[in-house]
Amino acid sequence: MHRMFKGFNFWKQRAFKNLLSQPGNRLTIYTRNNPDPDSLASSLALKRIAEHYNLEVAVYYTGAIQNRTLANVLGDDVMNAPQISSSRNCTAFVDLLPTELTGEKINPTIVIGHTLGNKEGIHCAYQDIRTTETTSSIMTEYLKKLGVAIDKRLATLLLFAIRDKTRTLIANFTLHDLESYWFIHKYADMELLNSLEHPSARIDTFEDLSRAIANKIMKGASLFTTVGYVKDPGTIPRVCKYMLDIEGISTALVLAINATKIYVYAESKNMELNMKNVLKKAFGEWGEVTGGPLHANTSIPLGVFGIAASAESAKPLLLKSISDSISSRYFYVLEAE
């Protein structure tokens, strides 16, 4: 039976090390769909810890990494998978709860993450699920207490994740996040951190920005826009940040479409709103919502619309239909909030 311990204390450390020290073990790590910096940095931290105990490790994510600079920095340390599937290996979920998955029921060996939701019904050999704002803070404590070497790249990724989730310790942070921030920052590469936080803009971003400005709809301090059909939806978080720079706008949602999916990204400067909750209420029945209180995203299968999307003549009508549906749900939920 799983025993609950407070923090990563002696007993929890012993249970964790015993699990990783089993001979011949191989660890498969899964993180959430369309992972944010926190999901990726904390997964990489667990990978580093497992390698410290001489395990073979593979890290997988589903969906897409929206920050191209972050994806390049991670390189082959994380790999894309079409879906999360059960494995004969020791399996870990990082920043991902089994209860969040739809379809096949998978019981991982290890679950590490943060949540304010229901943890009932999670069965695994080891779990550490807390109400801290970032999973990276949890993994920083693991690195520190287990005495695992922290290189500059890992430290920078963890610091970037904590800064990203808490707006550089301005909002939604806990004492644990603060302690982890000050511990890890002395190892970080500030030049790399600056590159992650201020990635160079590609020409695609400015083209999408132009369409976003032309298509914007504003209601009070809230904005909705679409960039239309794109080859790479990874530009829309940057476009959304530009939308928030418009005078009087505190909340923005950007929509993009490709051949198979509808991509939605939303961000807010309004501390009274929780954008993850907003998107869940508006689109949770259509697709998994990831992110946090300040910014969140979801991808929605195009479904039967995908057939119409293949015909050029039908694309404008399809885009209008999707935009009207997404915007009406978005503004309705915001008004209710």
From TrEMBL:
- Transmembrane annotation, as ranges: none
Task: Specify the protein name.
Answer: Exopolyphosphatase-like enzyme
Annotated source species: Candidatus Methanoperedens nitratireducens
